[in-house]
Amino acid sequence: MHTTESLDRFMADVRSGLKASPKHLSPEYFYDALGSHLFEAICQLPWYPLTRAERALLERHAEEMVAPFGAGASIVELGCGSGEKLALLAAPLCKRAPRLCVHLVDVSETALDLSRRTLGRLPRVETSAHRARYEEGLARAAARRAVDAQGGGGAVLVLFLGSNIGNLAPAAAAAFLAGVRGALRAGDGLLLGADLVKPAADLLLAYDDPLGVTAAFNKNLLARVNRELGATFDLRAFEHRAAWNAEASRVEMHLVSRRRQSIRVGALDLEVAFDEGESIWTESSYKYTPDEVVRMGERAGFRCHQQWIEPVGRFSTTLFLAEERAAGR
After folding, report:
1. CB-based burial label for 127 (10 Å; 0-12, 13-18, 19+)
2. At the fourth CATH level, which superfamily is domain 51-197+290-322?
3. Whole-prediction pTM value?
4. What does pLDDT average to over the chain?
């Protein structure tokens, strides 16, 4: 369900994306109810090791990852998914205090519901859900610091897991991390998940699996535009395509028109023409080296406290700490 504000933003983004050259739609809009469930299915596929690699790191090192944060700390997860990874990190913090305040930030109501149910299994966890974009949700959560810590102003640990950072172009990722740092105080932390560069064949299997689950996830974006904005996309007339762009170090996902066709989006009073082979660019997923992840955080004003790497799935989880800023910065 859309709020009026989010529907207006969806309409504006679809209009601008379909009129652009090349055409594009934001991956933010993958995650309606069906899209969220399809993504959870992708995470179970044998060709998509990212989630299992990250979970293995969290299972082995959760205590170390939250060690710098004492009683009164709160957690903010940006892009919460099912909440399973968050629960692994919340569990050790629950042992240190009479309650743990957790803020969930996601544009998907389905993801927020799944996370709330998952965290409901833990004792002494108080959950607040914010259906919002990351920056807005983080600002709301940070403003509640004193309330969460019962007046003590405890530390905030921000989680940005699942390689969500990879969905942002380098300049946007830098701006995003700087914004996160700007919302935090000295002593707060950022736990950042990032997928690492691996053989191209493995990456393409992860984003174009033999069962076609990722293709269904991608095409569901068109189904959503049809349903919510009265568009006339024929899903059979578009092909899912994944490509590895080595120069930019990213996997690109596209929906490619199989023929010349014209699409109408009723709610926008918009006609969109497609040539055969023309695509809608729906996602870029950037891959990093471990050192690049560290430098990215440090440029945003964090200090790298520790980095954990899962060697089989080639995934990194890095804990950054916010320190006192130098005078004049």
Report:
1. buried
2. Vaccinia Virus protein VP39 (3.40.50.150)
3. 0.90
4. 92
